[in-house]
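Narrative of activities, Objective 1.

The group set out to show that a structural description can be obtained from nothing but a protein's sequence at a throughput compatible with the screening campaign. Below is one input-output pair from the validation batch, recorded exactly as produced.
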Amino acid sequence: MKVVIIGLGSIGKKHVDALMQIEEHNFDIYALRSSMNKTKTYKNVNNIYSLEVLPFEPDFFIISNPTFLHFQTLQTLILFEKPLLIEKPAVMLLKEAAIIEPILRKKNILNYVGCNLRFLEVLTFSKDFLRKKNLRINEVNIYAGSYLPSWRPSQNFREVYSANAKMGGGIHLDFIHEIDYLYWFFGKPKMQHSILRNNSSLEISAIDYANYSYVYNEFVASVVLNYYRKDRKRTFEIVAEEGTLLIEVEKGKVFFKQELIFQTDQSILDTYFKQMRYFVNCIKSNEKTMNTFSEAFEVLQMCLDDE
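Output recorded for this entry:
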């Protein structure tokens, strides 16, 4: 299969590594680069510099360039009518999503928006646990706090895209995973409210604190995200009549009534392989993916509606 990847940064390289781990398929991987000057190579990836005259027919595209470029990239790639793996978030603005979504749906282009935490074992276990137990949920709390300057220690954190609002940065978009898996577990809420701020000591233009309240029929879900917590924390808590289910997202543990009921050594990095294999299998079998652009549009509404 011939794959063209748009954007070969840190996330793009994770997708390339995932492709190379799929032993049952052979991939020819091409990366669209902006300039021939000082362009570095990566593993077995072939550099190309234009999409206008490709000497081959791609089997699918991966979009992993900065978020603010997704809309323009999608407008170009839709013309090929080939499957698309779009790194989250799908686009930067709701008005962009409103333009792209009906085109993808009308052209029936197979697409998947890459929220790789859907392949995290603590979450898949917990989702199945909730389905089997049929708990009476009273409250949901999701918290994700991380320290942006530690993400890329060799760079000035204020210069990376995450810190810059105009480039599609912001904790609400970087950690849209948390909103996505809330949607994946419980669907779209009836009402919502958000507080988005960038007044912390980080002094960046992008949102560095987000606090969401989502109202469902039986419970209210709270999602709190930030860029400035040095003692990293990522938890998903479901408070039910029967007891509390606590998911330690990055530590690989699930507790119910304070007792450990599931544990895994799977890392978040491992999910990129499972995600890629899932997407490639959907292409091979011509099956509709989960988390299509249409679903991701709803998640983006949960993220941005009050912005």
